[in-house]
Write a structure and sequence with these properties.
There is one protein chain. By secondary structure, the chain is mainly alpha-helical. It has six helices and two strands, in the order αααββααα. The chain has helices spanning about 5-15, 20-25, 30-45, 60-85, 100-105, 105-110; strands spanning about 50, 55. Strands 1-2 form a two-stranded antiparallel ribbon. The longest helix is centred in the middle third of the chain and has 26 residues, at about 60-85. It is elongated, with a radius of gyration of 24 Å. The protein starts with a helix and ends with a helix.
C-alpha cells in the first residue's frame, strides 16, 4: 500500500473535490483519480459514489477515515522526532555593550 494514496484520499475528503485536492497536492486531477482507483482496488472497496454532480464518501470510506487520520498523525510525529535531535541552524544575532562584549562574551561564545 502506498502512503501517498491515503494522503490523497484524506485531501479529497478535506477539500471536498478531486480538483481542489489536485491543486493542493500540486498534481493533476487524473493523478488524484488514479490514486483513489488504486486504493479502491487494493482495499477491494468503493470509497466514493457519485450523487448528482458530487462525489460522496461511501460508508466504507467513512469507516476508513479515522484510521487514515491516525496514520497521517503518526507520520507527522515520526517526522518531528527525526528532526528534534538535529543541530540548531539559522542566524543568531547578539547585541551587547562594548565592555560586556570584551570581557564576558568570549567565554559565553566558546
Amino acid at each position: 500500500m502506498d502512503l501517498r494514496r491515503f494522503i490523497t484520499l484524506k485531501t479529497v475528503v478535506e477539500e471536498g473535490s478531486f480538483l481542489r485536492a489536485s491543486q493542493k497536492l500540486c498534481c493533476t486531477q487524473s493523478t488524484v483519480t488514479f490514486h483513489i482507483q488504486q486504493l479502491e482496488q487494493e482495499l477491494s472497496v468503493q470509497l466514493f459514489e457519485k450523487i448528482g454532480r458530487r462525489m460522496c464518501l461511501t460508508s466504507e470510506g467513512k469507516r476508513l477515515m479515522p484510521h487514515i487520520h491516525d496514520l497521517t498523525r503518526v507520520m507527522a510525529s515520526i517526522r518531528q522526532s527525526a528532526h528534534q535531535d538535529a543541530q540548531p541552524s539559522g542566524e543568531l544575532r547578539v547585541a551587547t555593550g562594548e565592555t560586556l562584549l570584551a570581557y564576558k562574551m568570549p567565554q559565553v561564545l566558546q
